[in-house]
Structures are given as structure tokens and as C-alpha cells.
Amino acid sequence: MFFAMLSVVFPYKKVVLCFLLPGHSHNIADRVIAWCRGATRKMNIYTPSLAVDEVNKVKSVHGVFLNHNDPSHPFYVGWGDLLDKYFKAPPACYTANYLFEIDQGVCTARKTVDTPDENAIVFEMVDPNSTDSIRKAVIKDLFDQAVSTIWEASVRNVQLPRHQTKELTEKKMKSLSAKYFSIPPQHLHYYPSVPDAVANAPVQSADQTDETTTTPSNPKSKRKPGRPRKQKNKLKPNQPSILQFFSPAKQ
């Protein structure tokens, strides 16, 4: 219904959604996630901006941190009530198709891109005879009574409720603040309720850090993945075989 709203409210010729067939749609996404995980593996990342900087070093990846607490990047909720008021839900089993063309709230669903028109299904998500009135009503409900066209609208005029910030409990804050000592001072501004003892702690130089850091003399090798193998007991020299215990006694 959201894309049907886009086709009605915005001056698009057509809104097209194309989903890949099963077995293909997730491969690229999984691959990109693996690339990003590899780029940040064994790294100390203290803020989202640092994570974005490292992820953007991966070829063909462009990451952006959307902070809904930032007034310039608001995150609105309550879309479901607005869409249910003006648009109809798609029919059952519509997800069996992979190509959707939405024109003024009327959707044409096809199994594949080359599916002929006679095999496609068409369903209306809005009354075609009242498209203009619905467009005006949605714009007024979504923005403001003074906004009559989408060209006059702005993100600052959106009337939907903003996503509320989840407040951490006092117990959780106390648990987090106990770990702030390991965060470099230049990144403490991102974290709430930093204790004075941590904020005013003297900054260690690189030489002092190297002196206090010790490495084990015999570091254990990393265990190989898979089921652990049992160590076979080695036979002691000159140890009789079990068959000798059951052999006929010598006369």
C-alpha cells in the first residue's frame, strides 16, 4: 500500500517493484554483509560513524548512519493507519509474483518480467474514479492543511508521530558505565552518563600502553572448526598385545 500511495501522491509515471527469484535474491545481500563483517573483523569500533567509515572502504558499498534522534533525519511511525484509511490491501497470494507495476494505485503483477498481459493479474488498491480527491486528502493528512500539492510539502511539515527513543533503565546504565574505562576519551561523547572518574582519567601515552600490555609467552593456537578429534593413546614400548592374554598357555 505504501508504493500505491507513492504512485498516487507523487507525479511518477509508474512505480515498479522487481524482486529476484528464490535462490538469487539473498545471495548478493549475504555477500555484502560478509564483506562488511570482514572489513570490521577484529577491530575496536566505538561509534556508528567509525563503523560507516570502515564499511565504506569496501568496494561498491556506501553505508550511511541514519540517526533518528537527529532533527534532519526524522523517523516517522504510524504509516499503517494512514494507508488503511485510503488504500486497499493486495489480494491473497499476490506474493507469488515478482514484478509489480503500480500506476495511479492500480497494480499489475507478473510472475516474471516477460509474463504476457493475459497471464498477469490486475488489482485496484484505490478507487480509480476518486484518485484526485484521495491525493488531496492524503497530502493534507500527511503534511498540513495549508499544503495543497506535493510541491509545497517538506519533511518539516510531516504530521506523523516520530519514533520514540527507548530509554535505558538505571540498572542497564550502571552496567554500561562500568565498561566505559576501555573506551578512548575522544569517543566518550557518544555515550550517556559517563562517570567523572572515567571522563577525568589521565590519558595514557602510547609508550605507557605498550609497557602495560603483555603478550603470553606461549599463545594457544586457535582451535580448528569442526568436531574435536579424540587423541589416540600411544602404545608403550614392549607392551604386550591383548591377544597375548588369550593365547594358549605355553607348556
From TrEMBL:
<feature type="region of interest" description="Disordered">
    <location>
        <begin position="203"/>
        <end position="251"/>
    </location>
</feature>
<protein>
    <submittedName>
        <fullName>Uncharacterized protein</fullName>
    </submittedName>
</protein>
<feature type="compositionally biased region" description="Basic residues">
    <location>
        <begin position="220"/>
        <end position="235"/>
    </location>
</feature>
<feature type="compositionally biased region" description="Polar residues">
    <location>
        <begin position="203"/>
        <end position="215"/>
    </location>
</feature>
<feature type="compositionally biased region" description="Polar residues">
    <location>
        <begin position="236"/>
        <end position="251"/>
    </location>
</feature>
